[in-house]
Amino acid sequence: VGFARVSGVGLFVGFALGYVAYHLIRQIDDYLVETVLSAVLAYGSYLLAEQVHASGVLAVLASGLLIGNSGRRYGMSHTTRNVLIHIWEFMAFLANTFVFLLIGLQVDLDKLFDSISLIGVAIIVTLLARMITVFGFSPLLNRFAPNRTPFTWQSVLVWGGLRGGIALALALTLPSNLVGYDEVLVMTFGVVLFTLGVQATTLPALLRRLGLLSSGKNLIEYERRRARLAAAKASEQFLQTQYKQGLLTKENYEVVLPEIQADISQFSGEVGEALTMLPDIRDDELEIVRKEVLQVKRGTLRTLRHDGIIGTDVFRELTTEIDANLSGKE
């Protein structure tokens, strides 16, 4: 009963504050203010939940789910969305680092090795729970969802259900005088180690086995060849600029230029070969070029603002349009 109350009240506090923040964000069109509001929501929901003796971690989780889904989709501009994603990715990485450090300081290595059987049971239970959830509910969801989740991706969801920061944070919030506190910490840490050391490292092999990485590998190879060609052409332009400005002698220019041009010819052939052998790459190339064009536009606007040719309001308006197009390409 106590656990249900702590969890339920924590979720309620998080959703309630998230709902309020969601409506505030819908009325505001300033990415700096919205970023600050998201930080206030995260810390405020945790502190308020703790004040009423509920789970602060679940409160933050609930508010984050609401803002990260409905708030991001309906209440934020594309610029705000991009800024928040980058900021909170860094914050999440930083928080995970501290959580792992704290759990490492509290877990006794001797107890970790002595509790191998407990950890094994915990791993099996978490995997079974994941299988029951994914394989059990996916057929039901596929009946109503516009995009069906195939069995291959269901398998990835089961094996890729990595547990880390949230599980450790929940374990750390338990009172230290709780019966079995040390065992809970050890099992949680063991399960997280298993997901990071075994599941995470074997996930690429599973994706390849299921045939889900073939196009990704082709795209990476194409990007590699295209990057070599772009670098070679940039070096040719640099060499020509140096020569025209009198910073390079004619003799050395005539020695180095043919070498670079030979590289350009070779890399151009490799790019053309990739497009011929891998026809599905053509669509990817089109998307890459469109994204690069939008990035060039964004960089030009940044330069214009820096030089004082356009004001901040115009810069924000036009970059928001570009960010909307970029988001549509991702």
Automatic annotation (TrEMBL):
Topology of the protein relative to the lipid bilayer: Multi-pass membrane protein
Primary localization: membrane
GO molecular function: potassium:proton antiporter activity; sodium:proton antiporter activity
Keywords: Antiport, Cell membrane, Ion transport, Membrane, Sodium, Sodium transport, Transmembrane, Transmembrane helix, Transport
InterPro entries: Cation/H_exchanger_CPA1, Cation/H_exchanger_TM
Stretches that traverse the bilayer: 6-24, 54-71, 83-104, 116-141, 153-172, 184-207
Subcellular localization, as worded in the UniProt entry: Cell membrane
Pfam families: Na_H_Exchanger (PF00999)
All residue ranges annotated as the Cation/H+ exchanger transmembrane domain in the record: 3-208
GO biological process: regulation of intracellular pH; sodium ion import across plasma membrane
GO CC terms: plasma membrane
Protein name: Cation/H+ exchanger transmembrane domain-containing protein
Originating organism: marine metagenome
Higher taxonomy: unclassified sequences, metagenomes, ecological metagenomes
